[in-house]
Amino acid sequence: MRILLLMDPFIPVPPIHYGGIERVIYDIACKYVEMGHEVTLIAGPGSKSPGRLITYGQNGPGSMKIDWALMKEVHTIVSREIKTHDVLHNFGRLAFLFSIAWTGIRKIQTYMRYITPKNIRMLNLSGIRNATYTAVSDAIVKTGKPGGGDWKTVYNCAPVDQFDFVREVRADAPLVFLGRLERCKGAHSAISVAEKTGRKLIIAGNISTLEHEKEYFHQEVEPRIDGKLIEYIGTVNNEQKNRLLGSAAAMLLPIEWYEPFPVVLPEAFACGTPILAFPGGGVPEGIRQGVTGFLSDTVDQMAADVNRIGELSRESCRQEALSKYSDTVIATNYLKLYQSK
Predict the structure, then answer these.
(1) Residue 54 pairs with which residues in a beta bridge?
(2) 3-state percent breakdown (helix, strand, coil) of the chain, nearest 5
(3) 332 and 305, same domain (yes or no)
(4) pLDDT tens digit string along 98-132?
(5) What is the percent of the chain where pLDDT is above 90?
(6) CB 58 within 8 A of CB 9
(7) Among candidates 3, 6, 14, which has minimal Cα distance to 49?
(8) Looking at residue 145, what DSSP letter applies?
(9) Could you tell me the CA-to-CA distances from 111 to 65, 161, 251 in Å, in that order?
(10) Is it the case that residue 134 has pLDDT exceeding 70?
């Protein structure tokens, strides 16, 4: 197939550090080329593609406001490229589809965030043809379905072969927190779990550029980092992430929001690392209670679960990554949608 992939320009594809959906796009693009398909990626400056690459826009903080200059640039590119492609898979904003809604090309719109149904409803009312909406968890699909249309769940993936499976870790292996250092991600709760259990916690992730989130980090996270029990190592690249996750007893995911489906979940599982998490959004869909992780509601419950990590199966975590969340599985799931009518 001739596959056209479209993404917002704000973070390069793939991201060097933070960027969930940008990472997934790159992984499936590579898999499609490996399968023998032709791929054209439309993304921001600094991006890479295993096939053709068209760059547009600028990197930087995104905005949900309509940027009409950006919309015009995207329309010019997409209206030209759909003439020579079989499918347009849009991972960017829904507004990109309005100007080409009437065209016959197969269209897939993917969401990795809470959905506003009225926007879907407006696009459906415009008479969009040959379109399927997907989201990265059943929880996110539920937020979009009231807008109408054909909906499917396709989870986020990880390139499992790029992660080393660590069958056993030492008895005093650390806990790890990996993600944006924003309140909703729960680093403060992860620290509390470590303090209650006396278990070393390694924190990796980027500090937000938003003022209130920077204030959160400097006031509620940074003062508790002592370099011994609580260690902050900054952002990590893929190689560092592989070593970090593989050496951990478990990853903590004490989220405080409607988490769509974190890319770190299949990445941790690929290393054999189980997850202790608070339920929210699509997270419970990815964890088999008592097998690949524990779901709990409070810091005290998560701290108690730390003492039960030995009951979890690192082998099962790896198998989940291979059977449900590998780049091969997820690329194939999308491909089935591309080929359906």
Answers:
(1) 42
(2) 45, 15, 40
(3) no
(4) 999 999 999 999 999 889 999 999 999 988 999 99
(5) 91
(6) yes
(7) 14
(8) G
(9) 17, 25, 25
(10) yes
